[in-house]
Amino acid sequence: MTGFLDPPPRAIRLRPRPALVLTVAAVLGLVMFCWPLFAHPAPSVSAHTADAPFVFMATLPVLILVVLAELSRGGIDAKALALLGVLSAVNAGLRPLGAGTGGIELVFFLLVLAGRVFGPGFGFVLGSTSLFTSALLTAGVGPWLPFQMLASSLIGLGAGLLPRARGKAEIALLVAYGVVAAYLFGLLMSLWSWPFLAGSSLGGTTAGLGYVPGAPLLDNLHRFAVFTVLTSTLGWDTGRAITNAVAILVLGPAVLAVLRRASRRAAFDAPVIFDQERVNPS
User: Fold this and answer.
1) Where on the phi/psi map is residue 102: left (φ > 0), alpha (ψ -120 to 50), or beta?
2) pLDDT category, 42, cuts 50, 70, 90?
């Protein structure tokens, strides 16, 4: 018997091959963010270390496109595509409301809730399309955009993989995840830009905290940890975490109910029957 406690149908069905591609993409994406911490170039090639961020900026959009293309092959129908467009537009409209003031960003709470309801595949795609659409709307297109898209996609993916829960337990779970996701997004975005500071002289409290090519892991990790706390965690990330927590706590139950109702009415798992098939079933 189908009841309210049954999970809604997934908007994007993850077959084995798309699931494998999605997993590989997530791992490669994290590698693209974290490579500076594990790079130990030899003295003869250290001069080319500064080229790595630009190589990743060129390859990351290709990686995202490959995943989106793979997920769209038989895994997404017209109903899911329409829903994806609506939620991407809503997210694009929400992002300018906070204008980035003190990390107040409303784009992530809806991403977390949609990923929770519609599954990891839909969450991954929505993360990319939301940030891409909002970047076009706010003139935020730049070399940072592919990294923002991937980081948001990972947040949507993680929301779809959260354990099952209902009621207050589910809201508490989503609030906790929203807080963690806010800090994770800030951490990843700090990490992508950090290598560009190699060889530069930072002033003020961040002096001497730039990325040093070839330095020991613990030394670079310490520099990055202090750098991201001073430049991101204490301000933007904390504001983003508070925004996510409050939005999910206040609006989460109503938004989840609306999204689940839309999922059941769309009946993503139901086969499409054309008028001719209704008249002539044979």
Assistant:
1) left
2) very low
Q: Global pTM? A: 0.78
Q: 191, exposed or middle or buried, with CB in 10 Å at 0-12, 13-18, 19+?
A: buried
Least confident of 60-74, 98-112, 185-199, 251-265: 60-74
Residue type, 4: F
Structural Rg of the chain based on CA atoms: 21
Q: Got the DSSP string for 141-204?
A: -STTHHHHHHHHHHHHHHHHTSPP--HHHHHHHHHHHHHHHHHHHHHHHHHHHGGGGTT----G
CATH topology of domain 16-39+50-268: Arp2/3 complex 21 kDa subunit ARPC3 (1.10.1760)
The owner of tokens 């038989």 is: 74
